[in-house]
Amino acid sequence: MSSTIKGFDTAKNNDRLAVLIPGLGAVGTTLIAGVMAARKGLARPIGSLTQYAPIDDSENSPRVCDALPVAALDDLVFGGWDIFEENCYQAAREAGVLTESDLAPIREELEAIEPMSAVFDPAYVRNIDGPNVKEAPTKMGLAEQLIDDIETFQNDHGCDRAVAVWCGSTEAHVTMRPVHMDLEAFEQGLRDSDEAISPTMIYAYAHLKAGVPFINGAPNSAVDCPALVELSQQEGVPIAGKDFKTGQTLLKTVLAPGLAARLLGVSGWYSTNILGNRDGAVLDDPDSFKTKEESKLSVLHSSLDAPRHPELYKDLTHKVRIDYYPPRGDNKEGWDNIDIFGWMDYPMQIKINFLCRDSILAAPVALDLALLGDLAHRMGESGVMDWLSFYFKSPQVTEGEQPIHDLFMQRDLLFSKLRSWYLASTEAEPAAQLAAGAE
Amino acid sequence: MSSTIKGFDTAKNNDRLAVLIPGLGAVGTTLIAGVMAARKGLARPIGSLTQYAPIDDSENSPRVCDALPVAALDDLVFGGWDIFEENCYQAAREAGVLTESDLAPIREELEAIEPMSAVFDPAYVRNIDGPNVKEAPTKMGLAEQLIDDIETFQNDHGCDRAVAVWCGSTEAHVTMRPVHMDLEAFEQGLRDSDEAISPTMIYAYAHLKAGVPFINGAPNSAVDCPALVELSQQEGVPIAGKDFKTGQTLLKTVLAPGLAARLLGVSGWYSTNILGNRDGAVLDDPDSFKTKEESKLSVLHSSLDAPRHPELYKDLTHKVRIDYYPPRGDNKEGWDNIDIFGWMDYPMQIKINFLCRDSILAAPVALDLALLGDLAHRMGESGVMDWLSFYFKSPQVTEGEQPIHDLFMQRDLLFSKLRSWYLASTEAEPAAQLAAGAE
Amino acid sequence: MSSTIKGFDTAKNNDRLAVLIPGLGAVGTTLIAGVMAARKGLARPIGSLTQYAPIDDSENSPRVCDALPVAALDDLVFGGWDIFEENCYQAAREAGVLTESDLAPIREELEAIEPMSAVFDPAYVRNIDGPNVKEAPTKMGLAEQLIDDIETFQNDHGCDRAVAVWCGSTEAHVTMRPVHMDLEAFEQGLRDSDEAISPTMIYAYAHLKAGVPFINGAPNSAVDCPALVELSQQEGVPIAGKDFKTGQTLLKTVLAPGLAARLLGVSGWYSTNILGNRDGAVLDDPDSFKTKEESKLSVLHSSLDAPRHPELYKDLTHKVRIDYYPPRGDNKEGWDNIDIFGWMDYPMQIKINFLCRDSILAAPVALDLALLGDLAHRMGESGVMDWLSFYFKSPQVTEGEQPIHDLFMQRDLLFSKLRSWYLASTEAEPAAQLAAGAE
Amino acid sequence: MSSTIKGFDTAKNNDRLAVLIPGLGAVGTTLIAGVMAARKGLARPIGSLTQYAPIDDSENSPRVCDALPVAALDDLVFGGWDIFEENCYQAAREAGVLTESDLAPIREELEAIEPMSAVFDPAYVRNIDGPNVKEAPTKMGLAEQLIDDIETFQNDHGCDRAVAVWCGSTEAHVTMRPVHMDLEAFEQGLRDSDEAISPTMIYAYAHLKAGVPFINGAPNSAVDCPALVELSQQEGVPIAGKDFKTGQTLLKTVLAPGLAARLLGVSGWYSTNILGNRDGAVLDDPDSFKTKEESKLSVLHSSLDAPRHPELYKDLTHKVRIDYYPPRGDNKEGWDNIDIFGWMDYPMQIKINFLCRDSILAAPVALDLALLGDLAHRMGESGVMDWLSFYFKSPQVTEGEQPIHDLFMQRDLLFSKLRSWYLASTEAEPAAQLAAGAE
């Protein structure tokens, strides 16, 4: 890849990129295993827009990863933290997402990744506990240990850059308080071990202080508080979140715009999920569920716009349920019932049963976010990356902006950004030449 | 409504518009009854974009029907043809779509609409037959009777304009032959009663000759042959088709783009439908089913673009099944099973069960098409209206163009046209003023 | 009907039977309206075994209602209690189960049934409240008022017999305490207004004291405590319960025996329900839900017999969820996911979506129970009617017995009782003659 | 196992039993692999009634295989015929039912089973063809080759007894003609190569002539013609059929009796199936489908008894559809929509989605039938085994009898037979002793 984007230092194209993952569970290990397998030509990273989507609609359009200087899969170095001591091979087997025959050829590589000890607080995550946990007198002390970890990891593995993707558990709901409102208060809170500062926030703080972009794949409050937005801008690093948009919610943000496009009314949307992985166990705690529920409930508002269309959407009942159901393992299943109405208010029903695999859907999202978060960083972006909304259930947006949930509008936003970079690059170097260079 | 679109004769705004419907069955009578009820304030024409959609995203955007000089519901005069002699009240009761309590307040108005005798050919529609049928020595003779009907209807009801919306049965599949290839051959074919000219084509010919826009709501070949496209251009009238996009296919063209947006692979899409109305009985004939099947199978191609993404879509098995199942009446039900794959090719499944009501979904589509077909006519458009693709399963497009099936791209195309007219109008008269005037 | 069952006083066949219903809501009014409509020949009491099932498998077997001296529909006189003051016509409209056109012809009859004031305690039912409520210094005082109501009703309406069917709300869960353990303690508890005595128990006590059989259609603790079993035996009246087996549970007790018959393993059974009627609102309270959940969870045990088949059923995860979802009204909908396994432990899944109508399924059950409860009373039975298990989610059985949930075994039990009476009757009078007499 | 059933020669208990399988495809290889794995303690033969069901309801009831002298899994020797030359390991991999990790430990044993060359006629099975096919001047010649095969196999493998289970493809529908009506005509037909004699019939004839019980797992006409019934009686061998009751039909024969038990009406039952294995390819041929459809349509008649309950079942529309859908492989999936009605004729709907595995459900059925067919033979039974109806979609019954489809009645019939043998044995030897002996 030899494109030159204005102001972009292509010399760094072949640098090694540390992909740091707090929470080396089902999603994290599936991501890592998939990239390892893809590097060996044993698997395809299906679902990844950077790897598969053309940058534009032209007939011979290059793919995003060829059109823009995103880090190559070969250049990724994975690391992370977890409360369990199992290495990534053990954790992947435990997670039960990938078959043994898919794990076998990359076993050694996976075994080599051992989790660093985690920041953990049982007040925030109730239904699991583990031994591989940091201790420090204050939350600031924990943050400093993480910063050390980040630097040590980069040095040990010869990485010049890093990006973090939170793949840990859903935490109990955090109400915004003064401690979250500005950076000074937040840092004082860390020193005081303020109970309103969650582990995710500590990770986020540490990464931003270390100059590492932070992506939040869980519904936890993290970089979506004023203090950490301030820090991201101050340190010049991109942040994005929150909550990977995977199964049921993905379909919701596809279907809702479709119903709205046809001006069909919606009187109710009932969604239930069954899942049996560790995520399910965590969400069985009402406080963690509340965090998730809030994230999942938000997605219909912007698509089914009640203020604009009270006749169609004002009486919408939206319910979301998640049930821990061990027989299913990671194979999360959603069932939605949607009550719609049309001509003369006659009712109709749509039912959607999605037999999905949570981590299979999340892994390419995590990959894209790592690659695009890093790319944005190198392009000089900092603060909230609204244009990454495409990947999130509950997109964090710049203050004053409204989140967009419609998947197609989100995609337009994403590609508008990517194409602006691409166009900038191809002004200097025509597309045909670039595509040729990519081969 | 007082907007002035450049070159548009607003004096004609309050003219009465004849809406002529070949096939006064479930869809036609539901459309008519709904408009009648809406005029009395007894029902809402939910699902109609002209009546409910804002013309743009601005906060106080007027609705399409207020932003543009579309005919008012109060100015519509309904008429049509059918092989059965029942008036529209009887036909609506027979169709079983609307409840008796919804039909009661408009009974007299409905009873007043008696179908004109129809052009019918049992070779094209096998499983039904009726007594109210025209006879003539040649197909040209039938066309001439229809032209008479059209003129007489307009005179009798004081209409200055007309628009036709085919709501009749699905016909046996027609293979394109020389007779369809130019207008001269087609007219000779009418005089020779060529067996390759179907009743729908005769209706289409008659309306175009009478200067009336023709919209094709069925999958039948009609205005989508070179001969009739030629005629539509010659006569300066818009044409559009084909096959109203209602239940299962509507969802397909929403969901397929969503899967494609996330670069998820699709290995199979199985769709079955059960329906028990007259439509179902007709489609129980293999030749009629073939026509429908072809229309329904086409919709995935442009969204799941195999040539561009062979790794995702080249092995897609797409099956469509329609079964006549009397217990369900007009309440068509679809069940789709979609086999998708993601990261590392792991398979997942989506199942959609749509308990829809065929005519309830089709009626607002038919309304919009009548209003927009007429509007286009007054705006001086003629020939194929590609921008109406939004409403069709199998959009007819200008020769050399590729049909678009993605509902969201179709919507962009539609609104791009509508907004261009709106912008033209508001250059003379600013939007704010227009909105005020609309109240 | 002229059969003579030994020891049965056929002179009472044409007596009027008071059917007393605590809780004149959706189920109660649907039952009453249906019987009224059936008496006029306007509707069919489908789902009622007494009205439709043959007593045996012989070719010309008479139906249960013709083979045995069950009260005729014409002889039923309905009454009841409710916390709302609406008469049965108003309540039926409010319930939204039956269409207006079905209610119109029986409107006057329904309007004539006005609820007696109810015994109500907001500690037991939290999410609703109403004005039509009795007051008394003690719970015994309330019971005495009910006994008065029962006697007054029978006198006013010329009824010689009565039977009660509880159709009221699900109450908060009651833990068994000493006060429930014998009649003396219970009566002292009534005098002391012991908080552990629920309204349903007060109704049950009152009916038994009045010599009226009591059927419990809700999952509430009522006659299933030793004190009231003792009373039922002492007063010589039948009791039965609890919780009408209607939608999802009905299917469970059909399907589970089927899986067991084929020795298929079951690793999980997830059941969710959405309903929007008053029942749904009540069950939105966790305490009421707990009562219902316990009832719904019990049904798999006897069919999927883990002690006998640990290899098939010992790790079964069984979850039941009920969600209040107003868009659906009384049209309760269940979705079940059942994870099964077969040969070599390979997993399979069954999903069942039941679009049922709660009251439509409950009404014939309530009718049968009223008729069979009364019949049993006349046959000299008293105490717990195990043989009525067929109709209940959580069958109350004689102390020391195990409840049976398998619908087919329950049916065998029921018919074994009915046929024993029938055989007794036909020993005196041969079946052929009896059938003739029934015409 | 040492029980002594009167007149039963227990000395033969440890004989080796040849299980001969015409059609070594998905079902056959799954059966064989499962038995091999079970013998090694690597898998469990779940779904097999002989292996798991207790003979009666007593607390310490022995299992059927311990209560009766059924052949032990260790004593089974598998062989068969197929039109493809692949050995059983290759065929099992091709079938794609079992994972590679399940096949690996038994690979050698499976490889040792090579199919004998098959009798095949493309007029009867159109969509597949293979090279491993017998040739002979007449159909009688083919039968004689099969008889040789059977004898050779038994000699080569030291088997004293054999039983045959047809696991081959569904053939085109055969209309009964004079040639099928008596044995003499049939044998003349074999000599004349009468086109009305199908391959399955030739296999059946050969086995019966060789004194081997013949079980028909497909819907093909085979032993269900008078000629072959006559032969089975003459040769003193049991026969049974037809069409293994596995997925959708299994559930139908569970659910239909459940609805009937509650006297609920059924207006429609729509069943569709998608499957992608070789079976699916064969059934894509309309003539083969017709054979299957007839078998699948028959199952509701006896449960939903329209003559007895015209008010509930006389207008039932029953549709069955099977679609070949390659993405799904052997993982057949059924979707049923059942339209029911209850109190006052109000309609409700049940939808069942069964993600089953055809061969996983069929294998234990085939095992039980082999074991019970052999047991019956040793018990001196011959002719049609009505009591094996439990296992079949379309049970073959003794002339003059009506087939029973209700799964629970079928089970009663089956156990009534098994228990009669068990009781006969325990008269001599008490149950307690027997159970002890079984350990």
Q: Enumerate the spans of chain A where pLDDT stays under 50 for 5 or more consecutive residues.
A: 430-439
How would a crystallographer describe the biggest sheet of chain A? 7 strands, parallel
Radius of gyration of chain A: 21 Å
CATH top level label of the largest domain in chain A: Alpha Beta
Q: Helix count of chain A, per DSSP?
A: 17
**Strand order of the main beta sheet of chain A, please?**
3-2-1-4-5-6-11
Helix content of chain A: 25-40%
Structural class of chain A: alpha/beta
Oligomer description? homotetramer
- Which whole number gives the mean pLDDT of chain A? 89
N→C terminal distance of chain A:
8 Å
Gross geometry of chain A? globular
* Total domain units of chain A: 2
CATH superfamily of the largest domain in chain A: NAD(P)-binding Rossmann-like Domain
Number of strands of chain A: 11
Can you walk through the features of this model?
With 439 residues, chain A is an alpha/beta fold. In chain A, a hairpin with a 5-residue loop joins strand 9 (333-341) and strand 10. Chain A has helices at residues 26-39, 49-52, 64-67, 88-95, 100-103, 107-111, 139-156, 183-191, 199-209, 226-235, 248-261, 278-283, 286-297, 310-313, 358-378, 407-428, 431-438, and strands spanning 17-22, 76-82, 116-117, 161-166, 214-216, 238-241, 265-275, 317-324, 333-341, 347-355, 383-384. A seven-stranded parallel beta sheet of chain A has the order 3-2-1-4-5-6-11, sandwiched between helices. Chain A has a four-stranded mixed beta sheet with strand order 8-7-9-10. The first copy, chain A, contains 17 helices and eleven strands. Chain A starts with 16 loop residues before the first strand and ends with a helix. Chain A folds into two domains: 10-244 and 359-434, Rossmann fold (3-Layer(aba) Sandwich), CATH 3.40.50; 248-355, 2-Layer Sandwich (Dihydrodipicolinate Reductase, domain 2). At the A-B interface, helix 1, helix 2, helix 11, strand 10 and helix 15 of A face helix 1, helix 2, helix 11, strand 10 and helix 15 of B.
